[in-house]
Amino acid sequence: MRNTYVDNWQLIKDRFEQWWNRVSWDKPTDKPLMRIVATGKTGKTVPVEKSREPRDKYLNVSSILADFRNYCETHYFLGDAFPAVDIDLGPGSMALYLGGEPGFSWDTVWYKEKCESPLEFDTLHYDENNPWWMLHQKMAKEATALAAGDFYVTIPDIIENLDILSALRGPQNLCYDILDEPEAIRRGVEIIDGLYFRYYDRLYDLLKDDDGSSSYTVFSILGKGRVAKVQCDYCALISPEMFREYVQPSLRKQCRNLVHSLYHLDGPDAIKHVPALMEIAELDALQWTCGAGKPDGGYEKWYPIYDQVRAAGKGLWIQLYDGGASDWAESAKRLVKRYGKTGMYFIFPQFENLNEARKMVNLFD
């Protein structure tokens, strides 16, 4: 990776390894990971034609890459921020690889239900010639060529376990299925587990850096080796007992086969599963999404979540966005005072003032 838009890729990679492994340098200059991006840079940009329909927004790789390069030319990547572009086909592209069809909108990609019965999960299989799978690989190759080593192309949001079954079957139907056909659900999760790395490994091979490092979509994570965000958003609809039965073993198996893993905990209805997640020794860190209309990650009501994560010896990914830069700084300092610098990763909104951004970089000096 070339130092085109960051000063020192190696330093960033080394600091991410610290975070993943919860290792401190034990130096006065040691500090938590902080993603800090600021506007105001003057660089060379090119005109990019806007998408005329939602489908183009996701499938036109040359426009996606040109638009992102314009972003890099006009933004500063400070602290531990690094440039990486996403080529997602929505949240859960494995559903497409397995025969689902997309519905493109300007905000997201949703998936049309495919399976009329949970018994159809037994028919799910790897198809090298699936058109969406073939297209996504082609997009990965094209994007890597256009990135030219200046930034990462992230591994797409494949997603796993019950979330894929829900996309194929429909969330309401799956609720009934778990009660009426539990064996079919267990078998479905096992099949998804078996398929996940068929897709992941191929995409990793296409998108990894020369040293084997990779970045996974959306959450600004980077690691030396196979890295992924893992999740089960569907868990909001099931009990902790069901989570331990259907999801926990799947996640444990998945994390065991990754070098680094970050769990995406999505909203207040998912908090009940934190104890089960912390039982997964192979999981490295937890990312907390507070939920629409809720206070940001600095809110003290969320501390009990963080307490459990830190007690389990895992890392934290915390987003701070309420108020202005001074508020973000105060929240970060309170969290560091409570939990220490090691294993902490703060994500800040885009800074419009470069001086404020640089001040944040030096917050823990």
Order of secondary-structure elements? HEHHEEHEEHEHHHEEEHEHEHEHEH
Report the sheet-strand fraction.
15-25%
- How much helix is in the residues? 40-55%
What integer value in Å does the Rg equal? 20 Å
* CATH fold assignment: TIM Barrel
Report on this model:
It is built from 13 helices and 13 strands. The protein has 365 residues and is α/β, with parallel strands linked by helices. The protein has one domain: Alpha-Beta Barrel (TIM Barrel). A hairpin with a 4-residue loop joins strand 4 and strand 5. Helix 6 crosses helix 8. The longest helix is centred in the middle third of the chain and has 26 residues, at 182-207.
Please give a handful of descriptors for the protein shown.
single chain; 365 residues; alpha/beta; TIM Barrel; 7-stranded mixed sheet; two-stranded parallel ribbon; 13 strands; 42% helix; globular
Architecture blueprint of SSEs:
Blueprint: H1 9-21, E1 33-39, H2 54-59, H3 61-73, E2 75-79, E3 84-85, H4 94-97, E4 101-104, E5 109-112, H5 131-147, E6 152-153, H6 161-169, H7 171-180, H8 182-207, E7 213-216, E8 221-224, E9 227-231, H9 240-256, E10 260-266, H10 274-278, E11 285-289, H11 303-311, E12 315-319, H12 325-339, E13 344-347, H13 354-361
Parallel strand pairs: 1-13, 3-6, 9-10, 10-11, 11-12, 12-13
Antiparallel strand pairs: 1-2, 4-5, 7-8
Helix pairs in contact: 3-5, 5-8, 6-7, 6-8, 7-8, 8-9
Task: Give a concise summary.
The chain has 365 residues and is α/β, with parallel strands linked by helices.
